[in-house]
Amino acid sequence: MKAGELFRGAKTRTDRCIVVAGASGGIGQPLSLLLKASPLIDELALYDVVNTPGVGADLSHISSPAKVTAFLPKEDGMKHAFTGADIVVIPAGIPRKPGMTRDDLFKINAGIVRDLVKGCAENCPNAYLLIISNPVNSTVPIAAEVLKAAKVFDPKKLFGVTTLDVVRAETFVAEITGQKNPAATTIPVIGGHSGETIVPLFSLAKPSVNIPADKLDALTNRVQFGGDEVVKAKDGAGSATLSMAYAGFRFAENVIKAVKGESGIVAPTYVYLPGVDGGDEIQKATGCDFFSVPVELGPGGAKKAINVLKDVNDYEKKLLAKCYEGLTGNISKGIEFIQNPPK
Ligand SMILES: NC(=O)c1ccc[n+]([C@@H]2O[C@H](COP(=O)([O-])OP(=O)(O)OC[C@H]3O[C@@H](n4cnc5c(N)ncnc54)[C@H](O)[C@@H]3O)[C@@H](O)[C@H]2O)c1
Ligand SMILES: O=C(O)C[C@H](O)C(=O)O
């Protein structure tokens, strides 16, 4: 199979196309599998610097409707992969090893995200961009700056994927409460996506949950540092991939459903607050331009940022104070990387 080949015989790009950039990786492959199985997608385009022809050939044998295309950088592969895409999901970049912070990934992943988002700005300026690559706290500001410089920035269409924090909160809470279906409880997790910038709001769970006081610190810590748990268990072989693929698919599916007109979809995601309705007051309260909050999704992307800050309890206020501190530095670092690029 040649890169770029349409695996199910179609000759042209179809109209509901989702690109996975980093499709051959630990997240990219299972995420692509879930997307291929989704009836909501007409074409799944795989882009990576390696192995997409093989991953594409493999996925193309699945008897679901989505056509699969696969691209490598050679022969203008990025251009062909991105042109006409509706959604680009980006899990490209290196993962952590034990002892590393997400910020340690910045050196390599910042440039990868910059270049991929440049490709999006040039070839699919209207696409919804879902950024998974770490450090999300900085890679999303990088993406915003690249899109601004190209004069195609629509803040309603740029999302940092923080769904894994929500998924973990649901799971770990259910381990305490014994609920049979963890995902049936909605738990807002806000802030950023690393350590103390991740702030779970158990007091706002719906339906409400009763967390015993002596378990609250450990539960909060587990959600904030759940990524470390996986990095340690994988022992040098990377970080969360399967749970991230589940989370990334869940968020992508929400975006697709909202774009197709389904109403009432709300999901926490890391957005540029000044560009989203309702974001200004959250920006004022947090001092952060980028922040993950529950966002109502609509046909244009982020329809409204929901201000849950006014409802948090004192315990959560203390967590938030630490979050703001860490997050502002991460955001500035991303912006600086584009505005004053390293020589
Ligand atoms: N947002 C989250 O909640 C979350 C969760 C888990 C992991 N992550 C992050 O996702 C990223 C990927 O993790 P992984 O485990 O899949 O890593 P991986 O190394 O298994 O896969 C990354 C893939 O990206 C590809 N790649 C590298 N440079 C590229 C480029 N310029 N263009 C296209 N593809 C490129 C690689 O070839 C590889 O296939 C990491 O940065 C990780 O920290 C984020
Ligand atoms: O922990 C990591 O580095 C990967 C990811 O951000 C996670 O939360 O699992």
UniProtKB/TrEMBL annotation:
GO terms for biological process: malate metabolic process; tricarboxylic acid cycle. NAD(+) binds at residues 22-28, 48, 109, 132-134, 244. Residues 162-337 form the Lactate/malate dehydrogenase C-terminal domain. Its EC number is 1.1.1.37. Keywords: NAD, Oxidoreductase, Tricarboxylic acid cycle. Pfam families: Ldh_1_C, Ldh_1_N. InterPro entries: L-lactate/malate_DH, Lactate/malate_DH_C, Lactate/malate_DH_N, Lactate_DH/Glyco_Ohase_4_C, Malate_DH_AS, Malate_DH_type1, NAD(P)-bd_dom_sf. Substrate binds at residues 96, 102, 134, 168. It catalyses: (S)-malate + NAD(+) = oxaloacetate + NADH + H(+). PROSITE patterns: MDH (PS00068). The active site is at 193 (proton acceptor). One of its GO terms (cellular component) is cytosol. CDD domains: MDH_glyoxysomal_mitochondrial. One of its GO terms (molecular function) is L-malate dehydrogenase (NAD+) activity. It comes from the Eukaryota. Residues 18-160 form the Lactate/malate dehydrogenase N-terminal domain. Belongs to the LDH/MDH superfamily. MDH type 1 family. Homodimer. This is Malate dehydrogenase. The lineage of its organism: Eukaryota, Fungi, Dikarya, Ascomycota, Pezizomycotina.
